[in-house]
Write a structure and sequence with these properties.
Layout lengths: L9 E2 L16 E2 L13 E2 H8 L6 H9 L4 E2 L2 E2 L6 E2 L4 E4 L4 E7 L5 E5 L7 E11 L5 E5 L4 E4 L17 E5 L5 E5 L6 E4 L8 E8 L8 E5 L5 E5 L3 E5 L10
Helix pairs in contact: 1-2
Length: about 250
């Protein structure tokens, strides 16, 4: 019987653009395993350890470091070298006491920005959807694949959920307690996490609604006063008057 599912391997030439690798030096690269981020918008942990953190010079060394439990992602030890690391994830190396947040790079890939220890226990996520579950409570579907159950006092009474799709939540990690909430609205600060303006940051000036998120346009103004536009699906709200977390570096 044939094996079901897609290929477990990936050729370097076919790797997504988010992987900034020398495509003609090695025929193969590491394919991220299924997880909280899609493979075309994440980096396997091995590449993070080898190429971004520079903790290893070869795949073998990087796999050994990961297998020994020397790297944390979002507060948890990860021993899967194919684990997908994506936007807003927190990467920690306990032995050397360094903490990093994964942020979009204007070159079309992902980068690590060093953050203070106090910020390493916080993660900003976007609300992708809301579902009503048994008992009249709500379940939030977040951008990093996790689901958070929100209980309401009176399930029969409407209008009790303050969170909406495209809002951002500041969560504690490795738990998922909501520490703060930022609405998606004009005047708040946002980061562009994909597309031609990937990595740019500014204040939301206007929103032109279309058919779905992909065809809706958001106009932003960066700190230098330059205005630009991007798709609504690429916008990630990060704060009100100032960002809740480090978004530049």
């Amino acid at each position: 019987m044939a094996r079901m599912g897609g290929s477990r391997h990936m050729k370097a030439l076919a790797a997504p653009s988010v992987q900034r690798i020398p495509r003609k030096e090695r025929p193969w690269t590491v394919k991220p395993s299924p997880g909280p981020h899609p493979s075309d918008r994440s980096l396997p942990l091995l590449l993070v350890v080898r190429d971004l953190l520079k903790l290893a010079e070869s795949n073998r060394e990087a796999r050994k470091i990961i297998a020994q439990g020397e790297v944390k992602v979002d507060g948890k030890y990860v021993r899967n070298y194919k684990w997908p690391v994506g936007i807003m994830d927190v990467v920690e190396v306990p032995k050397i006491g360094t903490y990093y947040r994964v942020l979009p790079d204007p070159r079309g890939t992902l980068r690590l920005v060093e953050i203070p220890k106090e910020e390493a226990s916080l993660k900003l996520v976007r609300v992708e959807g809301v579902t009503t579950v048994k008992g009249g409570h709500f379940e939030l579907h977040l951008s990093d694949g996790r689901n958070v159950l929100i209980r309401v006092e009176d399930p029969k009474k409407g209008g009790q959920l303050p969170y909406r799709p495209l809002d951002s939540l500041l969560l504690s990690i490795p738990g998922s307690q909501v520490k703060d909430h930022v609405e998606f609205k004009v005047g708040n600060l946002a980061l562009v996490v994909w597309g031609r303006n990937m990595g740019r940051y500014g204040k939301i000036v206007s929103v032109t609604r279309g058919w779905g998120w992909e065809r809706s346009i958001v106009a932003l103004e960066d700190p230098a006063g330059n205005k630009f536009e991007t798709s609504l699906s690429y916008v990630y709200v990060v704060g009100r008057d100032r960002p809740l977390i480090t978004v530049t570096g």
